[in-house]
From TrEMBL:
MF GO annotations: methyltransferase activity
Annotated GO biological process: methylation
Keywords carried by this UniProt record: Methyltransferase, Transferase
The UniProt record lists the keyword Methyltransferase: yes
This protein's name: SAM-dependent methyltransferase
Superkingdom of source: Bacteria
Methyltransferase domain location: 82-173
Pfam families noted in UniProt: Methyltransf_25
UniProt entry tagged with the keyword Lipid biosynthesis: no
Entries under CDD domains matching the protein: AdoMet_MTases
Organism the protein comes from: Mycolicibacterium sphagni
Membrane-crossing residue ranges in chain numbering: none
């Protein structure tokens, strides 16, 4: 059974595998930061990881699939206002503006270098796009500014208390908050992934792009949340938070997608449908 706490107290101690996580699962997590979260490493190293994510996402069709999922949540709205958090390379937003002719998109990241790069590219030149440095856990936007907030492949970067604050913030500025991320496996597969990544990393040249990507990838798996944890994080943000789990593509079995919303928005939506 999925277990959650009634308020924010104690959420910082929740294991990434949820309150009922096994002993081994609780030990397979880390507070070590990924390169992309560090400001004591060269930007060039961080951007190498972002480039690899862009490449891998393009090869697997991930950006396109994530954009389809995001747009399915705003399907009844003519000119949906969408905020992307943790955009990194910005490909998800790029797909959104290509697929939807009137979507208005704010593309953001905590890292100013990534935002600067996006602003200087094709996406930044689009008149329906705005770029901004935004911290997902303290969103500098007014209440109800967006129809949808989306955060892809990034939620695991946030420790539980910060992650819960991000859910509260994203559902304050947006009607729905779509989180798409890697799904935490059970303990044995997770142990094998972690050990395999350590081994492959050790055999890879320290200067290769792959080495930095494997380093961050291993930490990502160890910091990933499972379904029970996603539910508890939502409840900690607001006991009435609605968490709807969506089915990611069959070709992406390692992903999890959850749309958070507050019941107040559900009321607004039914009222606006009636009027
Ligand atoms: C693994 S990358 C994902 C990039 C892209 N969304 C993708 O799907 O490939 C994680 C991104 O989250 C950003 N990030 C980390 N903490 C954040 C926070 N508190 N608020 C906003 N973005 C954050 C990082 O700067 C990084 O660009």
């Amino acid at each position: 059974m999925e277990q959650s706490t009634p308020g924010t107290s104690g959420i910082e101690h929740m294991p990434r595998g949820g309150y009922n996580a096994s002993w081994l699962n609780r030990h397979l997590q880390t507070d070590v930061l990924e390169y992309t979260d560090r400001y004591d490493v060269p930007d060039e190293l961080k951007q190498r990881v972002i480039d690899s994510l862009d490449h891998l996402g393009s090869v697997r069709g991930l950006h396109e699939k994530n954009a389809h999922m995001a747009l399915s949540l705003v399907s009844g709205i003519d000119a949906p206002r969408i905020l992307e958090l943790g955009a990194g390379h910005g490909r998800l937003s790029e797909q959104i503006v290509q697929m939807h002719r009137s979507a208005q998109v704010t593309v953001s990241d905590l890292d100013p270098t990534s935002v600067h790069n996006i602003a200087g590219g094709v996406l930044g030149a689009n008149t329906r796009v705005r770029t901004k440095v935004i911290d997902a856990s303290a969103i500098s936007e007014p209440d109800d500014s967006y129809d949808l907030v989306v955060f892809a492949s990034s939620f695991h970067h946030l420790p539980p208390k910060v992650a819960s604050r991000a859910i509260a913030e994203a559902t304050r500025v947006g009607r729905k908050f779509l989180v798409i991320d890697i799904k935490r496996p059970s303990a044995i597969p997770l142990a094998l992934i972690s050990a395999g990544a350590l081994l492959i990393g050790a055999l890879t040249s320290p200067r290769s792009k792959a080495r930095a990507f494997i380093h961050d990838g291993r930490i990502s798996w160890l910091r990933s949340y499972n379904r029970a944890a996603f539910t508890s994080l939502g409840t900690a943000a607001d006991p009435a938070m609605v968490a709807e789990f969506l089915s990611p593509s069959d070709r992406l079995p390692h992903n999890i997608a959850v749309a958070y919303s507050r019941p107040t928005f559900a009321v607004h939506e039914s009222e606006s449908r009636r009027s």
